[in-house]
């Protein structure tokens, strides 16, 4: 990991948070396709895939230099894909898992704080995916998170 990678620090923290959810049995860092799920038994589900994009930086002028930005405020999209299996009560399972994930995303004040630089990020926007995929016998849904954070020119 790059020493100054705010992106990687945020992603690792999100992975740790998702791993603390008692109803989640595994956390991975790659999105899974239908064929990938065949490699998991029912006892290994539900699991969450934490998938981060590259940040979208916006330059912030410091006032110390003319026309050069030394600080950036970036938006980091982090998608939380939840994969589960329940043929009897899939809607209830989705409700319970989404509730657990929602609560955990907002649970750590060291990740989200308006008191920069004490936290890794300065803002969070969470958008649960409206569509829930059913790949019989699997259920898949996504919660999209956008973490806003500050970083310099030494890394993303």
Output the radius of gyration: 18 Å
Query: Helix content range of the residues, please?
Result: 10-25%
Mean pLDDT: 86
CATH topology grouping: STM4215-like
Q: Multimeric state of these chains? A: single chain
* Biggest beta sheet summary: 7 strands, mixed
Explain what you see.
With 156 residues, the protein is of the alpha+beta class. The protein has a single domain, classed as Phage tail protein-like (STM4215-like, 2-Layer Sandwich), CATH 3.30.2000. Helices cover 22% and strands 36% of the residues. The chain is built from 3 helices and 7 strands. The protein has helices spanning 6-19, 34-37, 90-105, and strands at residues 26-28, 47-52, 56-61, 69-85, 123-128, 133-135, 138-152. A hairpin with a 7-residue loop joins strand 3 (56-61) and strand 4. The mean pLDDT is 86.
Keywords:
seven-stranded mixed beta sheet, STM4215-like, elongated, 7 strands, 156 residues, alpha+beta
What's the short version?
By secondary structure, the chain is of the alpha+beta class.
Topology:
Elements: H1 6-19, E1 26-28, H2 34-37, E2 47-52, E3 56-61, E4 69-85, H3 90-105, E5 123-128, E6 133-135, E7 138-152
Parallel strand pairs: 1-2
Antiparallel strand pairs: 2-4, 3-4, 4-7, 5-7, 6-7
